[in-house]
Amino acid sequence: MTTASIPVTNRRRRQPSKLRRSVRRNLTAYGFLCGALICFAFFSWYPMVRQVILSFQKTNFVDAPEWVGLKNFRTVFSDPAFAPAWINTAMFTLLALLCGYVIPFITAIVLNELRHARAYLRFVVYLPVMLPPAVGVLLFQWFYNPDYGLFNQVLGFFHLPGLQWLNSSGTALISLVIVSTWMNMGSGTLIYLAALQTIPSELYEAAELDGAGLFKRIRHITIPQTKLILLVMLLLQIVATMQVFIEPYLLTGGGPENSTVTVVYLMYQYAFNFGSLNAGNALGLMLMLVLMVFSAIYLRVSRDNTV
Amino acid sequence: MKPRNLSIVLAAGLALAAAGCGSSDDGAAASKSAAPSANPNAPVSISVNCEPPKTNKVQRTTFEEDVAAFQKLYPNITVSKVTDAFPCYDPKTFEPKLASGDLETVFYVNFPNVGRLIESGQAADISSYVNELKTFPDYNSSLDLFKKDGKVYGLPTDGYGMGLVYNKDVFTKAGLDPNTPPKTWAEVQAAAKKIAALGPGYVGYGEYSGGNTGGWHFTASLYGRGGSVISDDGKKAAFNTPEGKAVLQNLQQMRWTDNSMGSQLYIEWPALMKAMAGGKMGMMLGAPDVLISLRNDFGGKFENYSVTAQPEAKALLNGGAGYMINPKATPDQIRAGLKWIEYEFLTPGKGQLDYVRAKGQDLTVGQPYPDLYGADTPSGKAVTDLRAANANIDAAQFAGWVEGSKGISPKPEPGPYAQEIYAILDTPMSAVLTRKDANVDQLLSDAEAKVNSMLASKS
């Protein structure tokens, strides 16, 4: 064979030139990649590595840090707010999915079916996303006021008794879910709408000719055709809602009676109010591990559907 | 290079970078073992914080004048950086600034955080230097909060005991005499009922319930009734007592039986202040500084408010703020930093105690704080005389508090874990204000178990 007859020294010389060619070919791509890599390295990966290190240390940022094993985790486990924080976070995620996942999808279907004022309504639905979150949250603080808030006035109009909203441990968490859904549904709706518009109209026309009503069209065409985007959005929403912070921070301070304390709110308490950045990091690491499971599923789903 | 290999190299690099950066904490504090420098006139540079914000033009100008005058007085000291971040002590930025070396040499701290900073070694030991301060021997007991094991870690520059702030205008509307404010909790309850009866929006008595402020005010009320939050050795909760029960029962009764507290929850410090400044709230627990803050920060009509003594008080929660020194400061910087604190905050006739200048600039003069010095000490007498000679506010607004608080001992925050304890005590406070059927005994018992568990984990 020809290759066998080439002297060994020549073959060695060819290896670097192949590598060089490969590097040269991809140099521009690596150049573009560098910016993103540097940003991720400094603002995402490095803080994550530091978080892991800090959660096993005790440090005051003055003296040399001391390795304390699992002490920070034990501190967090023994916190009376630890269990309520996880339960509330799970409940918030579940409720936020029920509301914040289903409502935008239905809204997108309705918007997609509309023949008139579609652009205007799309703008109206997206409007809350453009508001700074703090403004939206504080707006709801006024809506929820049991004495003069908008919601109790509406209930009163229909001769229904007013609710305590944020002032009751029974209704505080769902009140936060309503705020979160209102603030975030615009983005979800637009994504669903974009997915809906990729469905070939022939499918609907054929279904209509076969006598399929609205619900049958949704069940047999819309949902199967948007399955991937629905799944991806579900996973992304789980990851996002489990990190809920701004709503309890601004509206309830974790109360009443710890009914709205969430994992990230508790992390904030540890890091900034209790002066224990290490325990806050330990709690953050626990949350990260949980979220990694969902992120892994997300990656698997996206990979399986793109290959 | 294959992507996998590249990622391995990258991960290894990051790990090394992390380890390298982590070691930046390793340097022990410069001040820890350092003795005072032999030459007190050696050139030194310091940074200070808590310059009044740009929106507060008058006080900002006086502060800048003081920085210039201070450097003229001490030519060897350069104030290289002055920061005006508000609030002056921000727990969100404190540790990052300390870690990055960006924390000012002289930094502001409010009383609830003092114990924690001392406990965690985040403030310099200034014991060897404080005797160089002329006014140091005149300090009253507010200094005790900054001490641990005989060492001094900071200096209070503002101090006051708790009282009862009330709106005279609302009192008059409710048919109450604003010159004879409530002296007992029964009188507070009766007055609150009358105020709430004025109509929608009127709140007789406002109280905090979240964001750690509920626990803070529970502590103030409990101290007033003669109780304690933790035992003397700091190892056990001590609030599950008749005094603790009385605090919660009183609130529960006002909220649900009398309906005199409104239904709004106040979960952060400014929330209740805004409500009080709004002009429809009758009373709240608060120190004399609340009156000035209502005027300066919340747009309240100053002349409408007064502060009187906390009802039936046996002890007063000691509120206030002070300054500490960066634990990484050199001995020369510590000495220079203390000179700045002395000049700006502790010298009668200078800085914040320059009442002649304050009067000329239409700042309030005459409020009975800061209360830093013993009444019979030279500094105490000088401050009292200067304040009286330049008073430009109605002393009657504070008279009830001054007279009523005499002889009542101040009591400090409940140890270095005050914020954790306050967070736990938020629960019983929010429970009695949101649930008519809240079981006070059960709430106290649960909170006691939680505090005991937290304190045990700390030890």
UniProtKB/TrEMBL annotation, chain A:
<feature type="transmembrane region" description="Helical">
    <location>
        <begin position="228"/>
        <end position="246"/>
    </location>
</feature>
<protein>
    <submittedName>
        <fullName>Sugar ABC transporter permease</fullName>
    </submittedName>
</protein>
<feature type="transmembrane region" description="Helical">
    <location>
        <begin position="27"/>
        <end position="46"/>
    </location>
</feature>
<dbReference type="InterPro" id="IPR035906">
    <property type="entry name" value="MetI-like_sf"/>
</dbReference>
<keyword id="KW-1003">Cell membrane</keyword>
<comment type="similarity">
    <text>Belongs to the binding-protein-dependent transport system permease family.</text>
</comment>
<keyword id="KW-0812">Transmembrane</keyword>
<dbReference type="Pfam" id="PF00528">
    <property type="entry name" value="BPD_transp_1"/>
</dbReference>
<keyword id="KW-0472">Membrane</keyword>
<dbReference type="InterPro" id="IPR000515">
    <property type="entry name" value="MetI-like"/>
</dbReference>
<dbReference type="GO" id="GO:0005886">
    <property type="term" value="C:plasma membrane"/>
</dbReference>
<feature type="transmembrane region" description="Helical">
    <location>
        <begin position="282"/>
        <end position="301"/>
    </location>
</feature>
<feature type="transmembrane region" description="Helical">
    <location>
        <begin position="164"/>
        <end position="183"/>
    </location>
</feature>
<feature type="transmembrane region" description="Helical">
    <location>
        <begin position="85"/>
        <end position="111"/>
    </location>
</feature>
<feature type="domain" description="ABC transmembrane type-1">
    <location>
        <begin position="86"/>
        <end position="298"/>
    </location>
</feature>
<dbReference type="InterPro" id="IPR051393">
    <property type="entry name" value="ABC_transporter_permease"/>
</dbReference>
<dbReference type="GO" id="GO:0055085">
    <property type="term" value="P:transmembrane transport"/>
</dbReference>
<keyword id="KW-0813">Transport</keyword>
<feature type="transmembrane region" description="Helical">
    <location>
        <begin position="123"/>
        <end position="144"/>
    </location>
</feature>
<keyword id="KW-1133">Transmembrane helix</keyword>
From TrEMBL, chain B:
<dbReference type="InterPro" id="IPR006059">
    <property type="entry name" value="SBP"/>
</dbReference>
<feature type="signal peptide">
    <location>
        <begin position="1"/>
        <end position="17"/>
    </location>
</feature>
<dbReference type="InterPro" id="IPR050490">
    <property type="entry name" value="Bact_solute-bd_prot1"/>
</dbReference>
<feature type="compositionally biased region" description="Low complexity">
    <location>
        <begin position="29"/>
        <end position="47"/>
    </location>
</feature>
<feature type="region of interest" description="Disordered">
    <location>
        <begin position="29"/>
        <end position="51"/>
    </location>
</feature>
<protein>
    <submittedName>
        <fullName>Sugar-binding protein</fullName>
    </submittedName>
</protein>
<dbReference type="Pfam" id="PF01547">
    <property type="entry name" value="SBP_bac_1"/>
</dbReference>
<keyword id="KW-0732">Signal</keyword>
